[in-house]
Fold this protein.
Amino acid sequence: MVGLKNRMQKTEIDTEGAEEENENHTELAFDFNHSFEHMDWWSGLADLDRLNILNSPKEDRARLLASKYSKPVADIMVEIGRKTDLEYIEDFELPESPTKLLSMRLIHNYCCLPTEINDKGKLCIVTPWPPSEKMSRWVFAVSGLKPLWRLGPPEKISRAITENFGVGADSLDDEDFEEDGQDEEQDDLEDQNAAIIRFVNEVIQRAIVDRATDIHFEPHKDTLQIRYRIDGQLVPVRVPDNLRSFQDAIISRIKIMSGINISEKRRPQGGRITFSQGQSDLDIRVSTLPTLYGESLSLRLLNEKSQPLSMQELGLLGVDERNIISVLEKPHGIVLVTGPTGSGKSTSLTAFIRRIHKPERRIMTVEDPVEYEVAGINQTQVNSEIGFTFASALREILRQDPDVIMVGEIRDRETADIAIRASLTGHLVLSTLHTNDAPGAITRLIDMEIEPFLIASSVEMVIAQRLVRRLCSKCSKPTTKSDKEIIASLALLDAKESEIKYKDKILEAFGCPDCQNLGYRGRVGIFELMRMSDPIHSLVIKSASAPDIREVALKEGMSTLQSSGWNQIKRGLTTVDEVIRYSDSAIEDHELEDFSSNA
Ligand SMILES: [Zn+2]
C-alpha cells in the first residue's frame, strides 16, 4: 500500500478559507505537499509550459506533458507517480453508488472517482493528476474520511465520469458544497442561473467534441431527454436525474441564446446561435416545436471549420472516380446526385466542385445553406423569406457568365426547367434530387413535367448514394460470424457466394474511447452510378418506368448500393450490418414533402 507521504520537504500549508478555524485543523493537515499544485516535482520544464499545463483541466495535463516529451501518456503517468509517491493504477472499478462516498460535485470539480473504503478506513480515490491539499481537505470535510489518492489513466477517468454522472451533472447538483457557506435566496437564484448557463454550454461543447451534427432536447413525461446525432445515428446523452425540474429554465436559456421569443410557447419558432469556441465560431440553427410535455428543441451544428472532403475521402473507388471525372470534364450537361436527407449529397457535390476547379472555369453555386466554403468559388445562399429561391437565384446566376453551376437541390418544376435549359445552352450543372435510386431521378424529373427528350439530352450521369458509418480503425475486429451467416449476407449484398473467400477481410465494430464506444468514427459513401448510354437514352425518351431503366442499367454493369457497399466492406471500411441497413433505407413518402434540409 502506497501512502501519501511525500519525499519532499514539507512547506507552508495553504491556510486560505474558513477551514483554518476548524478544530479539525490538525486532522486536515495531511502530510503531503502543497507544491503538487505548482508542479515543483517536475523538473526541466519551461515556466510557460508549466503554466500552460496548470491552466488546463486536470484530465488534459498528462496528455500535454506526454506531447511535450513525445512519450505515451501511460509512461508519463507512471513517472508522475514515481515523482510524487502516488501509486499509478491502469484499471479501476467503481463501487455500487459512488456518490454515497463522494458528492457528485467533488467528482466533477476535481475530476476524480472514489473506488472503495479500504480496511484502514480511508477513502480510495483515483485521479488523473496529483491532488492539492485543498482537495484532500474537501474530501475529508464532505465524506468524513481521509483520502488515499491514486493516479489513474486520465482518458478512462473522464470518460467514466461522463458515462456515470452525465454531461454537466455537476452544474445542476446543488447539494452540500457551498464554498462560502452563504445560502441567501438571491444567491441561490443566481447560482441556479449560472448553473443552467454552464450546463447548456457543456452540452454544446460535449457535442462538438463528440462530432455531433445535431442536438435534440426532447421533453417526455418524466424526463428531459437529450440526444446527439453522431455519424447519422442518435446517441442518448446521460443526464442527471433531476434534469426534468430544470427543463423550463434550460429551454428558456437556449431560446434566449438563439434570439427566439421566450414567451411564445405554442408555435414553432426558429433562430440561430453563434457559439464561440476558442478562436472560431460555430453556427447553430435552432428550431422549437410544441409537444405534449413542453417545447422540443433541435439544434443543428454547422461547423465552419469542417473541411470539405476529397473524392477519395468520400470512399469512391478508382474506377467510379474516373467515370465521374470524365463526365465532370465535359463543358455541358447535368450530373445529379440522389439520396434521402443526410445521405451526403452536398458533401459529394462539393468534392466534385473542388476536383474540377481550375482558374479558367468560372464556378457558381446556389445553396441552402452554404455548408462548406470552397476557395475560389462564388457561393450564394438562398433566402426564401425574401423570395430569393433556388429558381430566382439560378436565373440571376445565368446572367453572370458561369461555366459550371451547382444548384443545392432541385425541388420544383421551375428550378428543374432552368437547370436543364442552362445545361443545354453550354453550362455544366450539378445538382441533387430527393430520390431512392439513380433511375428514380429520371422519373422524378418527368413527374415535374419536364419533357423526356430534354431530360435525355441533358442528363449525363445520375449518382445515387448513401453514407454508412466508417469503422473505427483503432478497435475494429475480424468477424466471428459463421460461413452460413456470411453467405446469407452476401445474397443481400448482390455478391456471389464465391466471395466468401474474402471472409478474412470482413470486420466488426467493437468500441473504444477513440470512438465514444460506438465502434464507428466518421462515414464513407456507397454509390450507384448510372450513365446516360444510348439504350437508356431511348428508354427515357419513351418515358419508360424506373424499374425498366434500372434493368437495362444493371445489364450495362451499373454498380448497386449493395455491391458498392460490399466493396467498402472488403476494404475494411465498414460492416455488413451498416451496408444492409442503409442501402435498404427507402425514402418515405413524408420525407419527399420535407425539403427543410438538403444534407
Ligand atoms: Zn474505436
In short: The CA atoms of residues 528 and 559 lie 5 Å apart. The first strand starts at residue 113 and ends at 117. The radius of gyration is 29 Å.
